Design the sequence.
């Protein structure tokens, strides 16, 4: 896996992934940025959320669950001292569907956390406390 980061002025950088996709990053105005993109640490949090969401949805699909929506909310705390690393992250999955089985959603979240999500496991091995929970919503069959 490869990536390239190009400085685009002030505190702004363009990141390009090995698959050819780009994202503009920028620092906050108090650090010389112009707020033209997410901060690098925000992207790290987004990457974690994307990784674990991918796992949960894949596992639920294989479990033949009728998922109509999945929203993953992440809340992170960072150290006050430099480096301002993540110290705690909470991941909350809101899974919507028809006749979803609680036991299978719980299993999907646990498997992602304990076995499949490379980002989550890497961060935990680095000392970040990561917690997970979920809620299930019934889909509106008529809407």
Sequence:
């Amino acid at each position: 896996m490869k990536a390239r980061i190009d400085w685009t002025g002030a505190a702004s950088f363009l990141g390009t992934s090995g698959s050819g996709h780009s994202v503009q990053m920028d620092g906050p105005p108090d650090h010389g940025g112009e707020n033209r993109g997410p901060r690098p640490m925000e992207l790290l949090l987004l990457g974690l959320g994307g990784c674990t969401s991918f796992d949960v949805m894949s596992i639920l699909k294989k479990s033949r669950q009728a998922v109509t929506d999945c929203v993953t909310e992440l809340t992170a705390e960072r150290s006050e001292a430099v480096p301002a690393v993540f110290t705690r992250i909470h991941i909350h999955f809101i899974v919507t569907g028809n006749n979803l089985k609680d036991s299978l959603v719980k299993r999907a979240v646990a498997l992602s956390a304990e076995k499949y999500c490379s980002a989550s496991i890497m961060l935990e091995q680095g000392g970040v406390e990561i917690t997970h929970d979920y809620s299930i919503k019934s889909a509106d069959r008529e809407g």
